[in-house]
Hints:
The protein is an alpha+beta fold. The chain has helices at about 25-30, 35-40, 85-100, 110-125, 150-165, 175-185, 185-195; strands spanning about 10-15, 45-50, 65, 70-80, 130-140, 145.
Amino acid sequence: MGLISGSLTFFRLHFQEALKLSNREIQSALEQYSFNNLFEEEKFVNYGFVPFDFPVQTDFLTAETDFDGLSVFGVRIDEKKVNKKYFDIEFERMKNAFMQENGKTYLTKTDKEFIKNALNTKLLKNSLPSTSIVEVILNQDEKCIYVSALNTKVMDILEHLFRLGFEIAVYRESMVENVRKKTGNAKLIDDMLKLTPYNF
């Protein structure tokens, strides 16, 4: 993974629960909620934990996860996607075929939704997934998790996996919370929040 090259930017997430797990307990949780164990062919989005050196190692029974007290592993996300232009072409073809088969001169909103859903299901079933791997560093002492990529979808997946595997709620601190933590001065933050661009 990209950690080896040392060129990654990491995003920090936090959790409040006390987590004091041994390396073996962490590996067991990671294996239980691994990509291989959670994978379902019918799902359009599959995700789960993978070892740090995936795809060389594919399970946590033999993979190394502990690096100087930090747990290092990954989250694999496979998402099936459909090309928009191809979808539009196929949608027009299916609309015409549907109108001919049913003797219609126009399609209702319900007809169009039915065709869209049928086409989407058909195309996604036959498409190859787009795979991404998010690198994760878990620091139990500081109650934080560092991840190599973060957007809304990744955050939802991380929240779900960490709730399942470790029974913790991960969250991202806002800029205000970060400043409050660094300065320890709640009044200063409140004053800053009241400022408008004209007060600078």
